[in-house]
Amino acid sequence: MLVNNAGIAIYDDLSSLEVLEQTFAVNFFGLLRVTSAFLPLLKRSKGAILNNVSLAGLAPLPMIPSYSASKAAALNLTQSLRALLADQGVAVHAVVIGPVDTDMNRGLEIPKAAPETAAAGIFDGFEKGQEEIFPDPASQSIAEGWRNGVSKTLEREFKAFVPMTPARAE
Known about the structure:
Structural class: mainly alpha
Order of helices and strands: EEHEHEHEHHHH
Strand content: 5-15%
Strand order of the largest sheet: 3-4-5
Shape: globular
Radius of gyration: 17 Å
Low-confidence stretches: none
Helix content: 40-55%
Distance between the termini: 53 Å
Largest sheet: 3 strands, parallel
Oligomer: single chain
Number of strands: 5
Mean pLDDT: 88
């Protein structure tokens, strides 16, 4: 495993179960726990959830497979929550973000969006009611393909399998 100047893993090869466990603890189980903790309030207020899932959740970035796998799981969780909570008035959005100039990407010589640009793109996508928000130039380049692709089509089709709840039956 290689680590950048900020102490963040910038390469792993799936050989460390500890790295996988730590990454999933933050990117999947952390997301699930925070959502569960706030869900009663979100239902009462008809609130919204915005989950950061990353471009690496759509296709694995081979240099960080643990991160990519955890973000793919976070995307799947986000899509599941979207279907399960729709009839309860809770909107669920996936922020599919590309590289941003943060500590995580320090030392990587790649094009990166400014944090302010990414933040503005997230708010813009949220205001437009986009289920998947592509807030930066790297992610915007694939947005249309995602929205019209097979994965999004299947998500829409599979939503029909959500069991009827009293709220949906009314």
